[in-house]
Amino acid sequence: MSGSVQVTQQLYQQLETQQLHEQLEKQQHFESSYYLSSRSSVSKQAFSTHQAQTTQKIHKTHKTQKTQTAQMTQTTQATRSHRVKTSVKTEKGQEVVKLSPLPKRAKRTYLAMDKDKEVIGYVIPVFRANHDVVRGLMETQDEEYTEEGIHYVAMRNLFVREAREALEVRVEKKTREKHVRESAVRLQMGRTMEEWTEFRRKMNPDRLTHPPEFIVKPRGQTVWEGKTVRLHCTVAGWPKPRIAWYKNNVLINAKAHPEKYTAESIYNMHSLEIKNCDFLDTAQYHVSALNVKGEASSTATLVVKRFQDGPEAGPFDPKPHGFCPEHGVTFQTAIIDQFDVAFGREGETLSLGCTVIIYPTVKKYQPQVVWYRNSVPLKPSKWVHTHWSGERAILTLTHLNKEDEGMYTLRVNTKSGFDTHSAYVFVRDADVEVEGVPVAPLDVRCHDVNKDYVVVTWKQPAVEGSSSILGYYIDRCEVGTHHWAQCNDAPVKYARFPVTGLVEGRSYVFRVRALNNAGVSRPSRISDAVVAMDPSDRARLKAGPSAPWTGVIKFTEEDPTVGVVPGEPTDVIVTEATKSYVVLAWKPPVQRGHEGVMYYIEKCISGTDLWQRVNTNMPVKSPRFALFDLAEGKSYSFRVRCCNSAGVGEASESTGEIIVGDKLDLPSPPGCPVATRNTDTSVVVFWGASKDVKHLVGYYIETSVVGTDAWMPCNNKPIKQTRFVCHGLSTGLNYVFRVKAVNAAGYSQSSATSDAVIVQAAISVPGEPTGVTLLEAVKDYMVVGWTAPEKNGGADIRGYFVDYRSVKGNVFGKWHEMNLKALTTTSYKAENLKENVFYQFRVRATNMAGLSKASLPSQALECKEWTITVPGPPVGLHVQEVRDTSLVVLWEAPMFSGRSPVNGYYLDIKEASAGEEGWKAVHEKTNKSKFMKVTGLKAGTSYVFRVRAQNLVGVGKSSAVLGPILAQTRPGTKEIYVDVDDEGMISMVFECSEMSAGSEFVWYKNYQEITDTSRLNIVSKGGNSKATFNSPSLDDLGTFSCVVTNTDGISSSYTLTEEGLMRLLDISHEHKFPVIPFKNEMAMELLEKGRVRFWTQLEKFTSACQVEYVFNDVIIEEGKKYTMKFDKSTGIIEMFMDSLEVTDEGTFTFNLVDGKAKGTTSLVLIGDEFRELQKKSEFERAEWVRKQGPHFVEYLDFTVTQECDVLLKCTIGNIRPETEIIWSKDSIEIAEDDEDAKKIEKKDCKLTFNIGKWVFKQEKKKEKGGKKPSAKNIPLPPRPKISKQDAGFYEVFLRDDRGRDKSTFNLTDAGYQAVMNEVFRVIASSSSEIKVVSTESGIVLYSMVTYYDENLPVGWLHKDAKIAASERVKSGVTGEQLWLKINEPTEKDKGKYTMNIFEGNNGAKRVLELTGKVWDEAFEEFQRLKAAAIAERNRARVIGGLPDVVAIQEGKSLNLTGNVWGEPQPEVSWTKNEKELTSGDRYKLKFEQGKFASITIAAVTTADSGKYALVVKNKYGTEAGEFTVSVYNPEEEESKEEKKD
Q1: Which has more confidence, 855 or 451?
Q2: How far is it, in rounded angstroms, from Cα 1314 to Cα 1311?
Q3: What is the DSSP letter of 1433?
Q4: Rounded CA gap, 1033 and 802, in Å?
Q5: Dihedral sign, CA of 870, 875, 880, 882?
Q6: What phi-psi label fits residue 490: left (phi over 0), alpha (psi between -120 and 50 degrees) or beta?
């Protein structure tokens, strides 16, 4: 027993000693953490205070340990806490120690206690980032702030209670078995202490830092959707690690999304809470711990499962919106005006857009709008532009390419959830430049980029052209240039090619072209740019800092490796092998020095030991190499050597034998496709995947219309799914489909052709019913009604199922079925209900495809007998014949009619967007029928309708609202038309091109189904239905309508009125008793020689048509007098007569018979009409006789040319060379030598006589040269174009041996005046607009004409008043100028001036407004010219007296006098050689009488020679009279001549 006590005491002593060491370690650790922690900001003062307190506590603790072992625990607690210690006895009589409550400012103990003040463990003090927090932790009992990742709660309940029990010394006997058991317990306790010590060693960091370590890793979980999940982990490490959470390698920002994530860190325990989990939260969650010593991470997988059965929702399926605590609202998103399936062509620009409505509106809040293609977010680029206006999201794809084809999704993210809308975009190939060439490849990408090597891949196009694709050309272009270089000389078959020879550090782009027998395709879209560089360098450039800066820089020393030959490469493998090339790859050597290495590649043909270096000239820099020009089918081995400046290393291990050939096989054909109906323009195609295919790129689907051999691609971008929706098909046509797979090796064989499918909308479940309302209520039953669903899913609705539940206040019961058998009506009597209990009802519709969704529940309806007297609400509202501006509303009578029968209805209408105040009545008077056509609608506007019933008591409740109904004519809508066949049967025909498998035509009269076939026979076949009247009469008047079932409301109507019936009966009679229609009734015309032609033309006839010719009821036959003709190709019937005689007066008739059809047409020729016709016939015969010889086609007449030449002209015909043409004037023949003969011209068959032509006579005398003067050199004298001399009677005769003809023209009196009027008209029309010119005397208004005749009347008006001639204002003519001169104009001369030329209908009027700017400019110019004229008249001038040159002998006297003029009198001066002379002894200058200026030189010398000038000047100008004076010496002249001799 004593041994047991001693062991226990020793354990406690060891525990206290260990705690003492820990206190010292804490002190040292605090010192290190103060300087080392990157986040701590504890002040030095706080550190000193803490150090002093800790030292004091340690000394006290050490002193307390010297007390008795039995009281060790109590004394230690008292020393550490400074609390009052009391002893109390328990119920068992045991004395235990109780501590007094902590004082308010007491120092915090290191013991952890529960609510009952029981010591439950040890707590290690925690220090925050500032002094205030430290004080709070030391002094406040309930404070819970801790520092992340440094300290953790010590082990609880480890020793306290056990120690308390061990203090009691008890003596007891132990058996050996019990002693052994206690020994085992002690050993177990020792192990526990060791584990606890190891745990404390890890959790309490020492002075040395260590990297993060996960003590507890996060655990993967699987939860239900909507639950909240928490991921936990415990991390140790010093300095404290930084914790970051990632979702699928994307950093989680919990502060930015507090509604979704909460990240917490308490001591070393870290957690991530994910709230309201949904399917998108299924992911791998990665937690990373990082400090200056390193990084540790762990991963956990979260799987979120759904409650409901059915297919899993995709990433873009709408999610329920949740409450947003940040803004205090729940955002609701509506995407309207949605984009549909779109079709574009390469090179075009395509825009997709939706209108997004976010409710409620929060100021400055905008949703996140993201666009996706095939579930991949789109980033703005030169090909993709996005725009968000706050209401509308628009995506613009510029310069479409086939890479842009795919499923486009608009996702709108809000703080409450997200909504999406998706549609497929098809991109068709651009038109090829050469017929038969393939279209461009697509999706060009670059892989495995190295220093001088890159692998380019692409996808084959959907259309190969007129022949199979032979291969592809790859082009490259260096970024920044526009030069494309072809990379391969021979086309490659594989859609993958290694491009070598790149320059390190340069950027390149690539494109691909396809080749077949017809030529080369257009290039593909260029790839993204890549940089030729080492992958490790690229990784270093892209990598960011992996840890925060720690302030520690490490230096390491390496052995110098300069001059070391590199080692051998490793892992040499063949990555690609085709019959065109082989690609090798290897790992660089470990030993390669600081400088880079390059590589030589060697090959060896199998069976030999000869290794041949492939790249002899240039080693490669990249650990990749493509070998070309290998023999197909042969085996090769390859190896690689490294080299640097020190030399070439050892060769690597051989790759082994590699056979050159295609390793990738063509894919196998896909399974037979199955096509099913989808919509009116699309079909869903399924097929089996290709078997054992490697590296599948995707599938291409092709379609063809049955009966044709043209196959068209459905997709231009390969897809990997085995299901595809083919859009853009024509409704009603039969299509077949086939599929082919494609990989890098090429295309597979096409699959088998699918069965033909008609493009029609597929049958689906109907829409949900609407408007569940109460129709009647009694004590124990209620009658409810509803409106049939707007869409029946393409099949007849087979019935309805009604559910009900009870409602008590706000408590709703469970739904129960009311009927097990489907209802065929839109109302139901719900029986066995409880009186005065409220119920709700909902309805489902069913068709052959299944059950619809439930309708919205009705209002809570009380089962209570109605006591109302007015009718209940009408039921069964629906619409037919929806058009842009009209529709027909139909309904059924209410189930409850009130106290009296229903006697009428009222129809109300409202625009769907209007409020309740927008309701208005369609009509004023009651409508007795249960239908009404509403007109005057606005196209594109939605409307709602309701109906009220009326009886003698009043108007009842409104029906359930019908709608909204969009007023819009369905594309392709056809109307009922009426047809009358050849038998006279009247029919109504309706056609529909959108028939489905179960569609039928149903005919109605006055909107009640026709069941009586006695009056109407209905025959329907395919998309055509004909309703034929058996015996049409007034009983058939009304509105006939036809509805096509299992369609989207296709219907039409035709109203048969009495007037329309009479018209149809007339047409029917015409068809029963047909009349041959005439295009033209019988007519008559005169022909040459006076022949008469009677003719008519038929509009419709057969080849059996016969004609009977009748004159005055007597049948006539063909003979000498009559000629008949019936051209059945044109339907023209003709009868000819050579002439009309007196006996031919009467009625001519054509009687026709064509089967049972008959026709008659007549022409009556009697009386004056006949005689007039007979005269015309005789005249025509005489004309024919006249035209047998020379004759006038156009008789003599006149014309006036634009130059006002008067020409007499005529046209002649049937002329021979010997035919005489004679002109005469006043019966006097114009001979050839007459002057007038020169005026006659003949050109072709036209004769002209130019009356105004002037003829010149050449004189008989000859010139000196013996020639007569030419008439062309004689000037034209003035002569009028026409005058009285030209008046006369002109004649032209034609004659030869065949006959003669004559034409005359009277150019006298009236004829002459007519010619002159025409001349005046031409002159008037040629006049220009009035122009203004200023002169020194005034202003001149003038107009130019081409010719002027003295008889032409010209009048001038000023302000519409005739201008009287005066000295100041004159008018006249100068040449071809008509002018009006205004001398010395004044302000009175301003105004409107009018010139009338040849007044009358053929005259001309020219108007000028001489006001404003026109007057100002003209008057200013006049004043300027007037002043200039005055100045010119009065300026100083030398008017004579001075010679040009004066030669004078030396010694003589020179005297010259010049006459001058000027007003005022000019100033006179003389100059010599431009220098002014003054009067003196040498020069005597005089100016006398203001007119004579003289200069005198007494005895001239040679020095007086020079250039002299007399200069006169006044205020108007200056003028100089210059002359030259030459003085000579006779003796000098003689000596000069002698010298010449």
Answers
A1: 855
A2: 5
A3: H
A4: 46
A5: positive
A6: beta
pLDDT value of position 475: 96
Q: How many CB atoms lie within 10 A of CB 1092?
A: 22
Cα 1149 → chain centroid? 69
The kind and range of the H/E element at 29 are helix 2-36
How many CB atoms sit inside 10 A of residue 1481's CB?
6
- Residue-wise pLDDT for 347-391, tens only, equals 899 999 999 988 888 887 888 999 999 888 998 888 899 999 888
Q: How far apart are CA 434 and CA 353, in angstroms?
A: 36
> How far apart (Å, rounded) are the C-alpha atoms in residues 1124 and 331?
91
Q: What is the Cα gyration radius of the chain?
A: 60
Taking a C-beta distance cutoff of 8 angstroms, is the pair 751, 673 a contact? yes
Q: How confident is the model at residue 1270 (pLDDT cuts 50, 70, 90)?
A: low
Distances (CA, A) of 288 to 285, 622, 1060: 10, 35, 88
pLDDT at 1265: 47
Q: Rounded to an integer, what distance in angstroms lies between the CA atom of residue 561 and that of residue 569? A: 17
- Report how far residue 1240's alpha carbon sits from residue 1237's, in angstroms, rounded to the nearest whole number: 5
Per the document, the length of the chain is: 1541
- When pLDDT is averaged across residues 100-128 and rounded to a whole number, the result is 39
- Asked if 1460 contacts 1438 with a C-beta cutoff of 8 angstroms, the reply is yes
The mean pLDDT of 765-791, rounded to a whole number, is 86
Average pLDDT, the chain: 80
Q: Which residue bears the tokens 């008559």? A: 1084
Q: Residue 411 burial by CB count (10 A; 0-12/13-18/19+): exposed, middle or buried?
A: buried
Q: What is the pLDDT of residues 1309-1363, one digit of tens each?
A: 888 888 888 888 888 888 999 999 999 889 999 999 988 888 888 889 998 888 8
| 1420 phi and psi angles, rounded to 5 deg | -65, -40
Strands annotated E in 1092-1142 = 1092-1098, 1106-1111, 1114-1115, 1122-1127, 1132-1137
Query: Residue 72 and residue 12: Cα distance in Å, rounded?
Result: 8
Q: Are 1325 and 1202 in contact (CB under 8 A)?
A: no
Whole-angstrom Cα distance, residue 1476 to residue 1468?
11
Name the one residue in this structure whose structure tokens are 């065109």: 580
Nearest CA to 829 among 855, 802, 808? 802
Check whether 1095 has a pLDDT greater than 70. yes
Q: What pLDDT is stored for residue 323 in this prediction?
A: 67
Encode pLDDT of 1363-1397 as tens digits.
888 888 888 898 889 999 999 999 988 999 999 98
**What confidence score (pLDDT) does residue 39 get?**
34
| Among 979, 982, 1009, CA closest to 991 | 979
Contacts with 1273 (C-beta within 8 Å, 6 or more apart), sequence order: none
Share of the chain residues as helix, strand and coil, in percent rounded to the nearest 5: 15, 40, 45
Dist. CA 439–CA 729, nearest whole Å: 22
Q: Is the pLDDT of residue 136 over 80?
A: no
Identify the bridge partners of residue 498 per DSSP, sorted by sequence position: 455
pLDDT per residue as tens digits for the range 1281-1306: 888 888 899 999 988 888 888 999 99
pLDDT score, position 793: 81
On whether the CB atoms of residues 652 and 572 are closer than 8 A, the answer is yes
Return the percentage of the chain with pLDDT > 90, whole number.
26
Give the burial class of 1226: count Cβ atoms within 10 A of its Cβ; 0-12 exposed, 13-18 middle, 19 or more buried.
exposed
CB 429 within 8 A of CB 392: no
CA distances to 524, 540, 578, 754, 1402 from 741, in Å = 21, 40, 20, 16, 85
Q: Show contacts of 167-175: CB within 8 Å, 24+ apart.
A: 167/70, 167/73, 168/94, 169/5, 169/70, 170/1, 171/1, 172/1, 174/1
